[in-house]
Amino acid sequence: MKAKARTAELEPEPRRPDFFETLFRSEYPRVVAVANRVLDDPAEAEDVAQEVFWDLHRRHPEGLPLAGRWLHSAAVHTALNRLRGRRRRQRREDLAERRREPEELGDPERHHLREDERRQVRLALARLPEKKAAVLALRYSGLSYAEVGAALGVGAGQVGTLLRRAEAELAHRLEDLKRETS
Question: Which CATH class is domain 108-181?
Fold first, then answer.
């Protein structure tokens, strides 16, 4: 009898029309609570819960043994990933703010020269092939090699090479622009 119960526990539940709806109704409050404990943000916890249920439905449309446990674990991992993303975004914003402050308080001529340099870089970026411009924009926006690689559909190990080649071509394009404007 115990073996039969254990086997039934490991096999996916047979697909019933109301399986997912029943699971959603019974587990949604717990999944939101788990995510909220990590995030301390009820609205974002609800977003996490919806994402987790969507992943379950997409990955296991026929049901899943111990679906509640899977949902709780997925909620924790998804919420932690959101926290990490929040921290990375905050670090990038803080860094950008620190870079801007001296400019705003500084010499107007220096500010004008920086704006001119930025305009030149944007023009040079526009002349680069799309992939090279994308690798530069993503990396200098603060993304890690792994994040850049994922965004571009390449391995993280390739990002360094792509980045060096893009930087070299950007430098050539900037030199071309300087010659054109001289």
Answer: mainly alpha
